[in-house]
Amino acid sequence: EIHIKEPIEKAVNPHLLPGELLLCEANTVYKYIQEDGSNHGTCGKLICTNFKIAFLDDDSALDDNEPQFKNKIVGENDITLQCVDQIYGVFDEKKKLLTGQLRKYPEKLIIYCKDLRVFNFCLRYTKEEEVKRIVSGIIHHSQTPKLLKRLFLFSYASAAPNNTDGRSQTVMFDTLEDWRHELERTKGNVKYKVVTINEGYRASEKLPLYFVVPICVSEESILKYEGRGIPIWCWSCHNGAALLKMSAFPKEQDDSTAQTQKAFLDGIYRTISKAPYELLKTDDLSSSLPSLQDIQTSYTRFKQLFLIDNSTDFWATDVKWFSLLESTNWLEIIRRVLKKAIEVVECLERQNTNVLLIEDSATDLCCVISTLVQVMMDSYSRTKLGFQSLIQKEWVVGGHGFLDRCNHLHKSDKEEAPVFLLLLNCVWQLVQQYPPAFEFTETYLTVLSDSLYVPIFSTFFFNSQHQKDINTSGEILKTQSGPFRFLTVWDWSVQFDPKAQAFLNNPLYAEKPKPDKSQRKNTRFKHQRQLSLPLTSTKPSPKRGFFREETDHFIKNILGKRIGKWISYSDEPPNSFREFYDSWHSKPVDYHGLLLPCIDGPEIKVWAQRYLRWIPEAQLHGGGTIATAAKILDLMEEVQSLQVKMDEEHSQAISGDVRSVPLLRNSARLSSLFPFALLHRQSVKPALPTSTWKDLEDEDDLVKRDDEFIDLTGDMP
């Protein structure tokens, strides 16, 4: 039996974006949720456009239920075509994955989304012809392979008015000036230079137009192998040590080619082994970290824990939650990635050693590690603008294949891997461990992860800068309103109004204090990031440059031989990582200095806001981090109003530079699902007989102790 609200007989018109076209629709569709053994549904219309799947109800929701954190592009009942993960049909109470042409059409449709929402639609009362059109349309437009130019990204950019103000404050790294400014900011311009050899993509289509290499590397050597085997600069530490990355040569080569490449690498070695460059350590990430296939397999298992159809399924998995979580290996992958980043930090900061990250393409795990290292070591990367500029530099311009890794075109599942999502999970660990160190919140990271699947921004929908450039040039893309221009995801006003954007800013961020003029002279040469470093004495390096006998190891590493060990030195203690890690954690934290995440045991946590936000059974009533944030924002609002009154009493001019905060008047209605969902009715854990527990349990020890877990709550309704 389906309990439904009576449908209101009135036309429901979809809100369409510029360039959005209605493709198919079905009336008398019921969107329902399964709760306490019965289905509660709302009647409405299900539509499919070239941008999204949307459910339109009678819009009878009260203003009181209007979410405070509303996305202006993607509504509560909207699913962008790129956000659809899998579609299942229910035939005679049996669930079946839907792909391609269907001979029989389902009576229920279940859509699993990449942002972990689950939509249940009942088509039992819909006309047969409409069922065929809507089901076939949804499967075709969301699951079948498509051409790049068919993405809604191009339709929107062609039709939308060009009323943006051009460049955002985020550094986009698409000009020579942006790279020169970054070199000056990190004081890396003494040993490194920006090269223009790739203008017109002469050297490689995978490299950006502009990038940074050691000054001694010639442009001819960059051209020789399309940028492979060339150390590319990522960032310079305050002590002069630099983080570099390199694209390795293919592993399968004939002997003559391998010899030629070895001679080439030997020449590169000679140029970067001389002063003023520091000692060099290399790490082949393709052997020292999990493979992309392992990451994809792990995340596929992990996300299944959160794609919950109904409360019964939730409580069925609750009893063995931790064993299921551990079996996915997702948290272990996060821990290994963070540990690798700390190893790199130790080399740069304590050993004053250059680090060269090596990977097949240098556009996947290299991006993860280099970003994490900069977030840990550079406080600018922990501001909102700094973090956004960092993503632009290392990921967007750096050539991460978002189109393939997110499988936006549904062309090959083999290329799909949640590499960028892995980074956001790692950054979240730091944000939740050191909240005052970050200008942005976990809500910011959650919204950023959702934006991966919103195809009106070009940020996450190309594999390289070259691919973007060739698809934006040409007569076909000239628009009536002016030059063709894509939106960038960093313009948050496109998705959120100022009130909602306040949730992206951390009210507890400890802003960097401006140095006192009287003390500036004395502290000028003491770098801010050194204040939180452990005072561990290290032996001076016996020799500048790379050791001669280690040349072959270096070249083998770059040629793709799976040598995952660090090049070690005789004067370096074997347990230096643990000593460095424990020593740092024994000191007080400087939120503008070096940050090392806690990676032992239970310190690595599940990103609850992103993964549990759509599950009512997992909510904390009046609790969670959002409850704390709500109280702080209310307090800030009160302080600001008092400040205004004081200024008025003293007849002082009000500057007006007051950060807007949301008004959270109904704090009693908040739960840990906020701001993505409002308070849901509390779901009570059912009291199950012993026989049912035995059916649910796989572990023998839990079966033997099942009586301990039976909920004997006597006051259940």
From TrEMBL:
Q: Which Pfam families match?
A: 3-PAP, Myotub-related
Q: Please provide the Gene Ontology terms (biological process) for this protein.
A: phosphatidylinositol dephosphorylation
What is the protein's major site of localization? cytoplasm
Q: Which residues form the Myotubularin phosphatase domain?
A: 173-611
Q: What are the GO cellular component annotations?
A: membrane; sarcomere; sarcoplasmic reticulum
Q: What is this protein called?
A: Myotubularin-related protein 12
Protein's organism = Turnix velox (Little buttonquail)
Which CDD domains does UniProt cross-reference here?
Answer: PTP-MTMR12
Return the InterPro entries for the record.
MTMR12-like_C (IPR022587), MTMR12_PTP (IPR030576), Myotubularin (IPR030564), Myotubularin-like_Pase_dom (IPR010569), PH-like_dom_sf (IPR011993), Prot-tyrosine_phosphatase-like (IPR029021)
Q: Where in the cell is it found?
A: Cytoplasm, Myofibril, Sarcomere; Sarcoplasmic reticulum
Instruction: Give the family per the record.
Output: Belongs to the protein-tyrosine phosphatase family. Non-receptor class myotubularin subfamily.
Q: Where is this region: Disordered?
A: 509-539
Q: What keywords are assigned to this protein? A: Cytoplasm, Sarcoplasmic reticulum
Q: Which SUPFAM superfamilies match?
A: (Phosphotyrosine protein) phosphatases II, PH domain-like
Q: Does the keyword ATP-binding apply?
A: no
**Where is this chain compositionally biased, Basic residues type?**
520-529
| Stretches with biased composition (Polar residues) | 530-539
Q: Does the keyword Cytoplasm apply?
A: yes
